[in-house]
Design goal:
Length: about 500
């Protein structure tokens, strides 16, 4: 009999959800935080500790964003190689970047300990390894720059994985945890202690007036001294849309009877694969991710899962594959996250462009934004400022990512599509051209056809059908919608509209 693989993350399937109310009426706070993922709740904890009254609002359930889809490698090994950071931000910039992520690991450890959060937090080594001769020189160079940046690194030829490697960089004292146990534990600890949490409440238009920020929410409003968009990418049309690019990444969680090394692992393949174990009572889990591609630009997303499963079976011995999921990262064009005050605003802040390092970046952001709001100095403010401009670092990726978005905006409109509604199978979606309009047509499992405008409300690119997740994904800035058009994530402010 075929083993049934559940969609959704291991964490979502196994950690009981919390419930918080929706917001009704008008409220006021010192700080309004939009988004109850790791960034939002960590910032709320730090601000409340500093005596601020904080309201946190999430459009969906607490922790239902990318934090529920992470693999929770807590590390200072960044997706952007340190030799690149040193090249583009100077050796001082590389040192600051390294230190900010080491600080973040200690901050998580401190919060786990202070609040007594039961989340299987464990100190482990992190290993960046290569199976290819081609990348050995690059890793030697990287080791040298990481050492000079102050990271506790060493070079190894063996890391205990069940396949041969050519070389590895090991960083000591990294960490891992169960991200939803941590997030819910943090919410339990801070809720009512200076922090009020609302969920299933969308924050709409926001304006700065009379020295305060005013936010319209479904069913009411909030006025606050400052607002933080902890929404993974801030909503609406913002210059940062051109500074970050959305990618989907795929994860499979398997039960195994074998003992694999307890640690965090990444290879140097492009896109890279990432590995960790998780021990849940008696059960050992192997969690492997990778096969990233630009959101909305892979015709057959099911093939990404198949390729990942092949990679896992080639390298490991599994009992069963239990869960599989995909989630989104925003890659910054110059290699570092954007954290700080929104350019042109006084009291509105955001944090985005974490790539695959959001566990630590969320903590860097929470500390940095808390310091900015409290008017305290922070050593990382300039490095991560959204107003920075690093032409040497960003120009190639900036041009490539924005030419790609522009090509999708124009090219997808010109595409001929001769298919008809009758060809859409149950549980499938297709873009159909009707009288010059692009219609996102989805036939549900009962055979009912749903017709939506395929025009993404953010900047009017044409959405694409995601075969594996059964969603409409925008190839330009990563807005995603359910098969029937409701907003899931990304910079759009609302869902797809019904087709005329
Ligand atoms: C497959 C995968 C694996 C990863 N693995 C790692 C890893 O091993 N280590 C690591 O460091 N990082 C990893 N990351 C990255 C990391 O998971 C994320 O960067 C991090 O979880 C982002 O947290 P966040 O709080 O900023 O965003 P989210 O968790 O996405 O939270 C944002 C919240 O804002 C809410 N929201 C959005 N708009 C509104 C609105 N208008 N009104 C109200 N609420 C709104 C959303 O509903 C959501 O709950 C991974 C990412 C992926 C995709
Ligand atoms: S997310 Fe920007 S156009 Fe769709």
């Amino acid at each position: 009999m075929l083993h049934r693989i559940e969609p959704g993350s291991l964490w979502q399937a196994t950690v009981p959800q919390r419930a918080y109310p929706t917001l009704q009426g008008d409220e006021a706070a010192d700080v309004l935080i939009v988004g109850a993922g790791l960034t939002g709740l960590t910032a709320a904890a730090l601000l409340a500790r500093a005596g601020k009254q904080v309201i946190v609002i999430d459009r969906r359930d607490l922790g239902s964003g990318v934090t529920s889809g992470t693999t929770a490698h807590i590390t200072a090994i960044l997706d952007t190689r340190f030799h690149q950071i040193a090249n583009d931000f100077g050796s001082e910039g590389a040192k600051l970047a390294a230190q900010s992520h080491l600080d973040a690991i200690e901050q998580i450890a401190g919060l786990v300990s202070d609040y007594g959060i039961d989340c299987e937090f464990l100190r482990v080594p992190g290993c960046l390894y290569t199976e290819s001769d081609r990348d050995i020189d690059m890793l030697h160079r990287e080791l040298d720059v990481m050492l000079r940046a102050g990271l506790p690194v060493s070079g190894l030829s063996e890391v205990g994985l069940p396949f041969p490697i050519k070389y590895a960089i090991e960083v000591g004292n990294q960490a891992m945890f169960n991200p939803l146990k941590y997030l819910y534990g943090l919410a339990d600890a801070i809720s009512g202690q200076g922090v009020t949490i609302y969920e299933n409440t969308a924050v709409g238009d926001v304006k700065e007036e009379d020295g305060r920020v005013w936010a319209a929410v479904e069913g009411g409003s909030v006025s606050a001294g400052a607002l933080i968009y902890a929404t993974h990418i801030p909503p609406g049309l913002k210059p940062v849309d051109t500074q970050v690019a959305p990618y989907r990444s795929y994860v499979i969680a398997c039960k195994t009877d074998h003992q694999y090394p307890v640690g965090l692992f990444w290879d140097t393949a492009r896109p890279y694969n990432y590995i960790r174990t998780y021990h849940d009572g008696e059960q050992t889990w192997l969690i492997v991710g990778g096969k990233d591609h630009k959101t909305g630009q892979e015709a057959d997303t099911e093939s990404a899962y198949q390729a990942l499963e092949r990679t896992i079976r080639e390298h490991f011995q599994l009992r069963t594959i239990e869960y599989r999921w995909s989630a989104q990262v925003y890659e910054p064009v110059d290699g570092l996250a954007y954290i700080g005050v929104e350019p042109g605003a006084e009291r509105i802040y955001y944090a985005t462009g974490y790539a695959g390092n959001g566990m630590t970046y969320a903590n860097v952001a929470a500390r940095l934004l808390t310091d900015l709001i409290l008017d305290r100095p922070n050593p990382y403010a300039e490095l991560y400022s959204p107003s920075r401009f690093k032409p040497a670092a960003s120009i190639t990726d900036f041009v490539a990512e924005n030419v790609n978005a522009a090509a999708r905006l124009i090219g997808d409109r010109l595409a001929e599509d001769a298919e008809v509604y009758g060809e859409i199978a149950n549980s499938e979606g297709k873009i159909i051209r009707v009288n010059g309009e692009q219609v996102a047509a989805y036939r549900d499992p009962h055979g009912v056809l749903h017709r939506l405008s395929a025009v993404c409300p953010h900047m009017k690119c044409i959405v694409h059908w995601n075969t594996a997740e059964k969603t409409w994904d925008c190839p330009c800035h990563g807005a995603r919608y359910t098969a029937t058009g409701e907003w899931i994530e990304g910079p759009a402010k609302h869902g797809l509209t019904k087709a005329e």
